[in-house]
Every structure is written in structure tokens, then in C-alpha cells.
């Protein structure tokens, strides 16, 4: 197997909708980035997840023009990947496909997204995409703190799935006469090509992945909220409140004295300006010393950083600069401090 200096390090960021794999060397030079579908261990069959991970590794190496023997380490940030049994099956699957001795580390995708934003410094990340979670890290103690991230059946408050599910429920209740009429009805019917609310049942329940199908409705909800629809506005306000509720206990656990804590916000839901504003203005966030920051690089950069660090490679300014240049993404949130 190649040495650390000449070997390749792979980072994987796997969420409820998509997965990204990055291939780089030990000095921060990125040689390929490839994308695929969901690798959430709790919302997609394991056979499909492992097949997708294997495919991404092969494609990433093919694009880089390098053999599998050159892999020196791989770190994966996977939604639903917190539990030891899940980490074990991912690691065992990849170990069977890679050269002997390759280091394989599996984390929750929130931990690697936080690493992408802070490079290991103290801070928090709040993700609202298909699912939602808040994670904080204190490098002095090595302690991670999390809130939420319990999946679409037991949590994911304020997520794209949560927004979409509430919107569908509101449309069906309005159809029954149990709630007021809403512009969401026309928007969602058009989205699914349905002539009547009853047609939504087939569209949702017979979808290949109902979770991502429902989450895809979130932009319609947020657009209707910006346009002033009362039902959509109520749902958006509830999402902002739910996301703020994830942040408060993590901040309380991490904060010492009067320090200001960076809070990195990322995920598809936060691309909506109206939702960002609703979240930033939540009263419960006032007075707890938060600096809201946009994630300036792709979340997969954090997994790559983890792979390097686990191999004993320090994140030098040169490495961070190279990764930032290659993996830059448009800021999702205007940086500001909540007083």
C-alpha cells in the first residue's frame, strides 16, 4: 500500500438525498469529486447503501486515474451512521474491497460537516436538509454534543421532510374541510401531476423513496410562505422554531463564560432566504452568543480532513487553502452575530 505521503485519502459525505465522495492526496490536492444518491443507513436498504458506496469509490478512483491500492485512508460522514453496529457494517464492507490495512473511519455527517467549517476548532453545526441535526465539538475535551438527528419517524424537526410532510397534511386537511384553504394545494398538485388531492396518496405511498419524495416539497412550502400564504408561513415558522430548539441545548452544553460560539448552518432548507431570516430572528437564540456562519466548502471536505487527521497528517494552512479553493461553495447564510 502507498505511504501517507503518496497515498490517496477519501472523504464521503452521505445524506438523505445525495452522497458525495472526494479523492485527494496527503497534501490537500483534490484529484476527483463524484456524486451519487442517498446513503442514509436508516432510510435506505443496506444492500443499496453498500452498492452505492462501492460504486462511488470505483468511480472516484477511475476519474483520478489511480488504482484502489493507492488508498491510504477513508473517512465517511453518513446520516444515520452514529451507532456502533452501523459503523461496523460500513467498515467491514469497505475493508473487504480495499487493500489490507487501510484505515476506515465512520462518523455522523454532522460531525464531518462541522469539521468542514471549523477544521477542528470549538463550535457547532446545524444541518437542515432531508433530515435535521445539531452537533457541537469541544477540542479541549474531545467531546461531541448532539441534539436531534433521530430520523424521520422519531425526529428530524425543521427538516425538508418535516416541511413537506406538514404541507401534505395541510393540503389533505383543507380538502376535508378541517383547515383553511391554502395555496399549497395547487403547488403540490402541480408538482406531482395530480388532478385531485386524493391522487397524492399514490404519488407518496408508492414512491421509491417516500422520504426524499416528501422532502422535495420543502422548496414549494418556503416559496408559498414568502408569497404570504398563511398555512405555509405557519409551517415555516414552526420549522425555524424547531431548528432553534435543536441549537439551544448544544450551545448551553458547550459554552463557557461569555465566549461567542460559531454556529455553522448548512443544508438545502437553509438556502431559502425567508427561512434563514425566520431562524435568525428566533427569540430563544438571542443572548446566548452565537456567530452564524455559512459553510464555505462542500461538507465532504470535512470527511477528507478527518481522513487526513486520522492518518496523523496535520491540517496545515496550505492544505486548508487548497481544499477551500477546490471545494468552495456559495455561502448559504450571511455571516452575522446574534446578540
Automatic annotation (TrEMBL):
GO molecular function: kinase activity
Pfam families recorded: BcrAD_BadFG (PF01869)
Source superkingdom: Bacteria
Domain ATPase BadF/BadG/BcrA/BcrD type: 10-279
The keyword Thylakoid is annotated on this UniProt entry: no
CDD domains per UniProt: ASKHA_NBD_eukNAGK-like
Keywords, comma-separated and alphabetical: Kinase, Transferase
PANTHER family in alphabetical order: N-ACETYL-D-GLUCOSAMINE KINASE
Name this protein carries in UniProt: N-acetylglucosamine kinase
Organism this protein belongs to: Cohnella fermenti
Amino acid at each position: 500500500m502507498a505511504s501517507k505521503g503518496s497515498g490517496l485519502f477519501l472523504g464521503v459525505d452521505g445524506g438523505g438525498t445525495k452522497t458525495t465522495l472526494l479523492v485527494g492526496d496527503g497534501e490537500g490536492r483534490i484529484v476527483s469529486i463524484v456524486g451519487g444518491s442517498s446513503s442514509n443507513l436508516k432510510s435506505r436498504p443496506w444492500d443499496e447503501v453498500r452498492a452505492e458506496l462501492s460504486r462511488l469509490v470505483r468511480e472516484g478512483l477511475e476519474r483520478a486515474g489511480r488504482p484502489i491500492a493507492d488508498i491510504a485512508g477513508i473517512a465517511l460522514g453518513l446520516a444515520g451512521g452514529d451507532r456502533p453496529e452501523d459503523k461496523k457494517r460500513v467498515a467491514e464492507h469497505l475493508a473487504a474491497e480495499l487493500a489490507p490495512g487501510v484505515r476506515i473511519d465512520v462518523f455522523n455527517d454532522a460531525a464531518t460537516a462541522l469539521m468542514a467549517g471549523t477544521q477542528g476548532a470549538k463550535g457547532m453545526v446545524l444541518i437542515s436538509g432531508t433530515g435535521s441535526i445539531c452537533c457541537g465539538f469541544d477540542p479541549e475535551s474531545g467531546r461531541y454534543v448532539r441534539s436531534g438527528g433521530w430520523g424521520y419517524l422519531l425526529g428530524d424537526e425543521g427538516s425538508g421532510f418535516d416541511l413537506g410532510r406538514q404541507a401534505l397534511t395541510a393540503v389533505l386537511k383543507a380538502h376535508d374541510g378541517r383547515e383553511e384553504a391554502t395555496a399549497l394545494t395547487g403547488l403540490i398538485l402541480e408538482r406531482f401531476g395530480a388532478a385531485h388531492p386524493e391522487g397524492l396518496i399514490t404519488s407518496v405511498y408508492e414512491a421509491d423513496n417516500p422520504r426524499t419524495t416528501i422532502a422535495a416539497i420543502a422548496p414549494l412550502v418556503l416559496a408559498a410562505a414568502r408569497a404570504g400564504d398563511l398555512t405555509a408561513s405557519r409551517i415555516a415558522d414552526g420549522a425555524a422554531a424547531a431548528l432553534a430548539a435543536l441549537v439551544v441545548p448544544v450551545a448551553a452544553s458547550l459554552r463557557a463564560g461569555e465566549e461567542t460560539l460559531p454556529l455553522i448552518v448548512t443544508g438545502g432548507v437553509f438556502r431559502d432566504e425567508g427561512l434563514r431570516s425566520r431562524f435568525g430572528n428566533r427569540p430563544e437564540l438571542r443572548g446566548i452568543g452565537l456567530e452564524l456562519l455559512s459553510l464555505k466548502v462542500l461538507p465532504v471536505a470535512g470527511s477528507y480532513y478527518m481522513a487526513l487527521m486520522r492518518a496523523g497528517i496535520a491540517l496545515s494552512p496550505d492544505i486548508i487553502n487548497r481544499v477551500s479553493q477546490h471545494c468552495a461553495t456559495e455561502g448559504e447564510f450571511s455571516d452575522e452575530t446574534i446578540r
